[in-house]
Design goal:
By secondary structure, this protein is of the alpha/beta class. It has seven helices and eleven strands. Manganese (II) ion (MN) binds next to loops.
Length: 248
């Protein structure tokens, strides 16, 4: 049956060989059979700029995505907070199309809104302030003008601070805000919503102005790879273990 697959928050890096092995397995065994693969942000642990394409590890990720053209699987990339600097050069190398956040599209007859999801976490005021700065065009231009090594060092330092900050934050403020979700659903005329970012995979039901809207949250790949399969009958979660379990 024609279907599309959704993934996010893989956080691929050379330090996480398990996630990379699962990603390659996923591309060959699952994505190759889909009409389209949508990556809703945070494919990479971080992306310092499209001049980092030649990095050995990045080349493997790009080759895996580009291989999907042989199977006629369309690939769509949406920015996450970690890889917001992914640009057209990377997209072209992956044979992928960059999507705006959010993007509304018809999926097998159902209007569906796609987002990374970080803009819905409106209780995390510090994060949103930081996000505004990172999305500022002048900031990005100045940042990308720095040498690649300096950019990587800066990002690694930011990540250390962010990990420390996360540990002291109440977990409730790092989830989506229900009113922000309702406002987004209202703005786009009550679609189905698919997003990642929070690492809290689930199916939620929202009733907004009397309209019932499904919200699917994608899982991260920190412990186990997962994807959401969408076809004309609806959405289903696929989980894939990296290796066969002993004794099975
Ligand atoms: Mn994220």
């Amino acid at each position: 049956m024609p279907h599309s697959l959704f993934i996010s928050d893989l956080h691929l890096s050379s330090n996480q060989p398990r996630s990379m092995a699962e990603f390659q397995h996923f591309i060959a065994e699952f994505a190759s059979k889909a009409e389209a693969l949508f990556i809703l942000g945070d494919l990479f642990e971080y992306w310092a700029g499209d001049d980092d394409l030649d990095d050995k590890f990045h080349s493997r990720v790009i080759a895996a995505l580009a291989s999907l053209t042989h199977y006629h699987t369309k690939v769509y990339l949406l920015h996450g907070n970690r890889d917001l600097l992914m640009g057209e050069v990377l997209a072209k190398a992956c044979r992928a199309t960059l999507l705006d956040d959010p993007t509304l599209m018809d999926l097998y007859g159902i209007p569906t809104l796609l987002s990374h999801g970080d803009t819905l976490c409106t209780d995390d005021v510090d994060y949103l302030r930081y996000r505004d700065q990172m999305h500022d065009a002048k900031f990005q231009k100045d940042f990308l003008a720095k040498p690649l090594a300096a950019r990587k060092a800066f990002i690694e330092e930011l990540r250390r601070h962010s990990n420390e900050a996360k540990q002291s934050k109440d977990s409730a403020i790092m989830d989506v805000n229900d009113e922000a979700v309702a406002a987004l659903l209202r703005k786009y005329h009550y679609p189905r919503l698919i997003h990642g970012h929070t690492h809290r995979p689930a199916r939620h039901q929202h009733v907004v102005d009397g309209h019932a809207c499904e919200r699917w949250v994608l899982g991260d790949w920190d412990q186990q790879g997962s994807a959401l399969r969408v076809d004309a009958q609806g959405c289903n979660v696929i989980l894939f273990p990296s290796k066969p379990q002993p004794g099975h």
